[in-house]
User: Fold this.
Amino acid sequence: MTATVAIMGRPNVGKSTLFNRLVGRKIALVDNQPGVTRDRREGQASLGDLHFRIFDTAGLDSVKGESLEARMSAQAETAADIADVVLFVIDARAGVTPSDREFAARLRRLGKPVILLANKAEGRGHEAALLEAFELGFGEALPVSAEHGEGLDLLYDALVPYAEGRPVTEVTAEGPLRLAIIGQPNAGKSTLVNAILGEERMLTGPEAGITRDAISSDFEWRGTRIRLWDTAGIRRKAKVTGKIEKLAVSDALRAIRFAECVVVLIDASLPIERQDLALCDLVAREGRAVVLALSKWDLVKEKQKKLREVMSDLEDVLPEIRGVPVVTLSAHQEKGIDKLLQAVLAAMERWNRRIPTAQVNRWLEATIARNPPPAPSGRRIKIRYATQANARPPTFALFGNQLSKMPESYVRYLMHGLRDSFDLGGVPIRFSLRGGKNPFDKSR
Assistant:
């Protein structure tokens, strides 16, 4: 096990900037507006030769009850419970505030080791804040600047006692399956993630747009290691307003590009919208394996009718990923979770599939015999040879004459034939059209 570190403090003291600095990437959303971070974000951090697991958290808040702010604060305290040591961050420019004093008292009650950091301490004028910080009861505050990377040598020395004797987690050559869950706001993505993980890992609630960062969590299901991303809801571009939402959507799109398989979650209790299908198309264009999940299935009254409507919409609007698996589930009742993960693994198997060249060419010969390529300008297109050039997604190279003139309708014909013949349903298929002779034919 590596040491576990939680970054805590009131809003807008630079916790996410410090998190990004320590993990070496800008993966937590950062903005001057307080309260950008909501869920706790996890990463693998390095500082010199120290390696540790780190949590970025929402700002501690004094509110209670079931409000969003109270739930955010509860997530931060959960991170502190897990952590071996807490980095308590204050703002060196603002000095010690009443909120800092209140939260220092809460941290003392948790009984965790605390390293006090006075962030934004670049330049001069922070000495008064360092003296004030003694009253918080955690000893001397370390002056640091997360934005400029100053004072990290002091943080290194403070972390050594907690990291020593803890070997770095072994990294295998083959990483976990990378799975992202996307959908419109309030489709139930975070509730689904919590049901999969079996814990209240993500903030949930009736408010749309709670999730902002794309949050990853590692788990294992039936011997398969999976890294799961919960993402912010993605609305139509015209409806995306405000800097924070734009950053959140950008983070979600990054998660899609990093994933291998993407679950597109649709709220089945509402009419299917074109944006839902557009998200499926987006994933297919990125070349990822796709699974469509209908959430809140327990709220649907005419289930068979709803399913027929969804399948019809997919056939009409998304013929390029015909055969995409559709799974019904209720994350609230924890029903359909295993079925969803089985569909994910099956989609991954198809996405990684390699088909022998001999089989591809037998299929090609039969397919052309049934429906020969057209003859633009009176000269027939000839496809002499095909082979699978790559997987992830399956990509096929076609060799022949005038392939650049092949109409899109014939390309779709070949694509559907491959999908039906080799069980590639729901997997995007790519073609590479190449002129010239069969490169493996030595007789020419």
